[in-house]
Amino acid sequence: MNNWIYNEFKHCGVNYSDIEQAEIYDNQHQKFRDYEKEFIDFLSNLSLDNYHNVTMIDLGCGTGATSLYASKYFKKIYAIDVSELMIKQVIKKSEKENITNIEFINSGFLSYEHKAEPVDIVLTKSALHHLPDFWKQVALLRINKMLKPSGIFYLFDVIYHFQPTEYINKIDNFISAFEAMAGEQFKAEVETHIRDEFSTFSWIMEGMLARAGFEVEKIRTSDGFVMEYYCKKVRDIALP
Ligand SMILES: C[S@@+](CC[C@H](N)C(=O)[O-])C[C@H]1O[C@@H](n2cnc3c(N)ncnc32)[C@H](O)[C@@H]1O
């Protein structure tokens, strides 16, 4: 591997390679998330005629918030994460439920080589912000290659969607809202996210999506922070 390639396994900000973090993840997140509801909402926005044959890659799958539900509807899921410990959590859950159509791979946006047929959907939820912008662009180019023509790319992440001059109030309010929902410990995690991770502005993300061969078909945000992009692959990207 080239010596200049970003080391995506080293974890910036919240350390998902920490056993305690992996074990408390679901408890913390379920204070403000309903994984099943999130997946049904995602599915209803896809307007697929038939989802039983759908194949999907979940990049940054974590403890399986999406992969586990997707496995009940779709044919095959590739669940990818740089944290072995997060993957261990989702493997435990999938074994309990006798789920057999998820392949778990300890890899990441910049290192995962998709050897099987290109998939119908690539999804990434709350994970792309772990890469600095240059590497986000590289990740998006690589995602293009994993998808079939007209395949769907769904991006859910903290992406700033407000005027830059408003940043102090916006960020303070965002942190307070999470503190109210999930307590002191999660407040500290959101502070870490803002300070040490690489969330970017929506117009930067949209420029990167276009350059990676994606057309944005739908954007959703309720608070100017959490953004959802439903994209279609409209052209193939040639990579050396
Ligand atoms: C906030 S969690 C989100 C997990 C899951 N997608 C969810 O919705 O709950 C972020 C996950 O991204 C993973 N991650 C961080 N950098 C990554 C990378 N470069 N490639 C793949 N996964 C990465 C972390 O290990 C962690 O499991």
Automatic annotation (TrEMBL):
Membrane keyword on record: no
A Pfam entry, by short name: Methyltransf_25
Domain Methyltransferase: 57-151
Keyword Transferase belongs to the record: yes
Gene3D superfamilies listed in its UniProt record: Vaccinia Virus protein VP39
InterPro entries in the cross-refs: Methyltransf_25, SAM-dependent_MTases_sf
GO-annotated molecular function: methyltransferase activity
PANTHER family in the record: TRANS-ACONITATE 2-METHYLTRANSFERASE-RELATED
Protein's name according to its UniProt entry: Methyltransferase type 11
Protein's organism: Desulfofarcimen acetoxidans (strain ATCC 49208 / DSM 771 / KCTC 5769 / VKM B-1644 / 5575)
Organism phylogeny: Bacteria, Bacillati, Bacillota, Clostridia, Eubacteriales
